[in-house]
Design brief:
2 copies of one chain form a homodimer.
Chain A (H helix, E strand, L loop, with lengths): L2 H16 L3 E6 L10 H4 L8 E6 L4 E6 L3 H7 L4 E5 L4 H11 L4 E3 L13 H13 L6 E3 L1 H9 L3 H22 L8 H14 L3 E2 L8 E4 L20 E6 L1 E3 L2 E2 L2 E7 L9 H20 L6 H14 L10 E3 L6 E6 L19 E4 L2 E4 L3 E4 L2 E5 L4 E3 L8 E3 L3
Parallel strand pairs in A: 1-5, 3-4, 5-6, 12-20
Antiparallel strand pairs in A: 1-2, 2-3, 7-10, 8-9, 9-12, 10-11, 13-14, 15-18, 16-17, 18-19
């Protein structure tokens, strides 16, 4: 059974569990305006208006343009693949009249971008077609379906994530021998991308910022391209990098310290910051278990840093990883406007989260470590081999 | 001036021309749910709720999450880049109150997928924020802005397209010496992808179907992966391939005929089909000029084939190319439901179209050629070197 067949099957039982009769993923020209759910339930792009229909009764039907029919049949996840040349409106209307669902879930959500793949223009089209058959009032958000599909990782998904992580760790290990004073952020990025390429591995996100590299105290911080800034003695160097393996993404950060001539251990301020980060990761991992809420876990790490005299970090403690680097709906984050309801979702077994607090050490740079943990029935365990000590780089 | 600066400038004058006061591209996690317009006016992805605002008065302002600020400033196309940590609602509301536009264009369209990047969830958020400041009724579709931005190609864009086409032609030229009986569709696809890779070129669309290769009479037709089917004497072989150069895509098809032992010219049926295609391309190119409508041009090719005893092809005669293989809103296509209003848009100078009619020759396969033409003030000229004769492959 392929990952996609597994997910379409999972969707059928989820619909039953959630009491939703029918779920429609409605897309067109998906290479341009890709509903992120397509990657999960189709794995191929579609050109014309296309509907992927799953029902609580256990049916799966696709209606697609003629040239996509053979490709969708090959997926092997749809009992029926119907194709057309001129238009699909009547095909979809007839099929829905036959199913006569009380609720029809569609892919939109204010809070969850992974569940918000339906465009507004496509919504208007669907609404008109459903109005014509008296079903427009049956529309509901598919967010609970899509979130659960992504969040409840199957054994095969965890396995792919483990591979992605282990490849990432090998490249970080090699990086330890590459970083030295005089090497630029760009050179570090090139080194890692070359290593990935030679190993035949894909990057987890866009090459411009995979990896992100920050050397020293004068950096722009996260989500910014590596620069020609050069690693110097006394610098903290942090690297954020990920690999995509069979469609599943790692996302990890490691922190290095470059000793100054004559220095045998990092300065106190650096050490203190490092251990505050390590502890905040461990404490939040211990707090992470089914049924707690994301913001409660975020608060554990954030408060630990505050209690040690550091300001809070300007982002969430952790996000889910999966087919995308920012996957799932629930996050471990503070209750800020931009996170909407995401920090209020109860944690479930099968979720995979990053833990990535950060502090800034004046005159040295950032300390930021990002580990990956899997939630199980009783708690959470590391999928990464967690960084335990500051990686020291010799000054020469 | 970069292509993106050029496009943001073009947008300012378009707003004035179209009588629209303000245009907002509103996006989040754009690597997942990418509004295709972002590639045109930003060139980088954004993580948090972000607004790219252009006004008819000539302002350009971006409101983005803190970590995207430096990247957006580097684009050099926005007079002001405002950033935030917790939420952007009040920043956007204040800015809109200051601009006080009578009309606010947003990226949705039932007909034009390139203009339909706003998701339904994001629409609901924006609608709520605008309702709070009494501006929700000012929303209009940005389709005329986005279509014109994509359709009116600048000199730099045409230049990039020319490069993409010329690289594609070089690879097709090499392919002529590679195709022979016994070679599979997959081997042909691998050969072309290797050639692109060795030349350091990106493919124009997803690798699974770039190129498409169809050998002989028993093929699935367009939009289907190459198979292990093998080229045989008597086969027509068609290949659909494109290269992306500096973000701009070619899309071309060529037709080959494999002679049978003792055969010195292709059979009559094949020759007749080939010339019917060549003529229908030339006749439709002559019909293509500013102010005619897309369906009129489609009809010229379609009717020529029908008059020669062939059935019509089950797709449009041509689409625009640009940053995507299917670019722009106007198409040269029949008035079918799935094409909505696209065939009714008047042709404008600066549009770049494919012309790609096809016929099926029983027992031999497909004849399908795809050329690219640029519309100018008085007509349309080829950007490709058009295929004039059937490319003959020796049987041994």
């Amino acid at each position: 059974m392929t990952l996609i067949q597994e997910k379409v099957d999972q969707a059928k039982s989820l619909l039953k569990e959630l009491g939703i009769d029918c779920w429609i993923t409605f897309a067109r020209e998906s290479e341009l305006n890709g509903d992120p759910t397509l990657e999960l339930i189709s794995g191929m792009s579609v050109t014309w208006h296309s509907a992927f229909i799953v029902t609580a009764a256990g049916e799966s039907v696709a209606i697609v343009g003629r040239y996509d029919q053979a490709g969708v049949e090959d997926i092997g996840a749809y009992d029926e693949v119907i194709s057309y040349d001129e238009g699909m409106k009547s095909l979809l209307q007839e099929r829905l009249k036959r199913i006569d669902p009380e609720s029809i879930a569609i892919n939109y959500s204010r809070d969850s971008e992974i569940s918000d793949g339906l465009t507004y223009g496509m919504f208007l089209t669907l609404q008109e077609w459903l109005t014509e058959i008296g079903m427009a009032r049956r529309l509901v958000s598919a967010e609970p379906i899509i979130s659960a599909l992504r969040q409840r990782k199957t054994a095969a998904e965890i396995e792919a994530l483990r591979h992605a992580i282990s490849h990432t760790e090998v490249i970080f290990e090699k990086l330890t021998r590459f970083i030295r004073p005089g090497v630029s952020e760009c050179a570090i990025a090139d080194f890692m991308q070359d290593e990935a390429k030679q190993a035949g591995l894909e990057l987890a996100w866009e090459p411009a910022t995979c990896p992100e590299v920050f050397a020293g105290p004068d950096t722009a911080e996260a989500h910014y391209n590596p620069t020609h800034r050069v690693v110097m003695p006394g610098h903290l160097v942090t690297v954020d990098f990920g690999i995509r393996y069979e469609g599943y993404c790692s996302d990890m950060q490691r922190t290095f310290y470059v000793l100054r001539p004559g220095e045998h251990v990092p300065p106190d301020a650096v050490q203190r910051g490092f251990y505050a980060i390590i502890e905040s990761i461990e404490l939040s991992r211990q707090a992470l278990k089914p049924c707690v809420l994301g913001y409660e876990v975020d608060a554990v790490a954030r408060n630990h840093l505050k209690n040690n005299g550091y300001p809070g970090f300007p982002h969430a403690l952790g996000h889910q990883v999966g087919r995308f680097v920012h996957d799932g709906t629930a996050i471990l984050g503070p209750t800020w406007e931009k996170y909407a309801h995401k920090p209020f979702h109860p944690i479930e077994p099968g979720m995979v989260f990053t833990l990535e607090p950060r502090v800034r050490i004046p005159e040295h740079g950032l300390v930021t470590i990002e580990e990956i943990v899997l939630v199980h029935e009783k708690g959470a365990r590391f999928l990464t081999n967690p960084q335990k000590t500051l990686i020291e780089i010799e000054p020469y």
